[in-house]
Amino acid sequence: MLAGRSKLRVFSPAKLNLMLRVLGRRPDGYHDLCLLNTGIDLGDEVEVELGGQGVRVECDHALVPLGEDNLCVRAARAFLAGAPAPPDGVAIRITKRIPVAGGLAGGSSNAAAVLWALNRLTGAGRSDHDLIHLAATIGADAPFFLFRSPAWARGKGEILDPAPALPDWHYLLVGFPFGVSAAWAFAQWDLTSAPSCDNLKNLKKPDSIPEPGTWVNDLEPAVVARHPAVARAKQALRKAGAVGAMMSGSGPTVFGVFHKRPSAERVRASLDLGAGGEIFLARALRGPLIRIIE
After folding, report:
1. Which of 18, 43, 46, 91 has its CA 20 to 30 A from that of 221?
2. What is the pTM of this model?
3. Which of 7, 60, 130, 141 is catalytic?
């Protein structure tokens, strides 16, 4: 336990998928994936406090569910079920900065942050391996946030290997006033695609990072067909000088990669996103992802 503390406030980062290849559907309903993930310095704040009765969640974003559908609730219940001396209650407060349903795994990151914080607050002392295994029961994206960045992810996302450090790129993220359901995006892949094995051997090499111009997201075509604004954002970023541009996760957030921060800042100032759009400038994180906010 952390010196008698009953409350922790932690940084819960967003994730970019620099590669997302879908290899096929699994018998358990998930998909076999090959991913190249990086955490970024855009993130939420998650406060976890022991006390009261039951598991309660508060959030400053109206679209975030506060009941059993919230992954933080599921994470807290799963952790406490295996704790030797669980507290009577846990209060979770989320300050959102990551776009909701934007393909940046904000909900999974928040859930991983809850596991990380409870492990320290309760003095349970679970290993990183145990926390990653528990996170995999909450959601396919959650284990990554308890590993390190960047990382290759396989299986449904729970088989993790370190990736080489990324160059010091700058990422310009374009958000939209609409979200995309991950379940819907994967269902469209099931309907329209067949497993593709081109270059998958190279994707799994732990000693190489593909060039940004070769990155692929197999979920992107279906999302673009439904939301042409995604394609327009990619085109605008490339035209403005991005060395690569792609949709992250199940979308709709699009990111462009820039070698130099001034270039990214100039594009940020000049892009016309239309009504309701958002733009973020971010850098990749290295090493452990979740940390205490003092």
Report:
1. 43
2. 0.93
3. 141
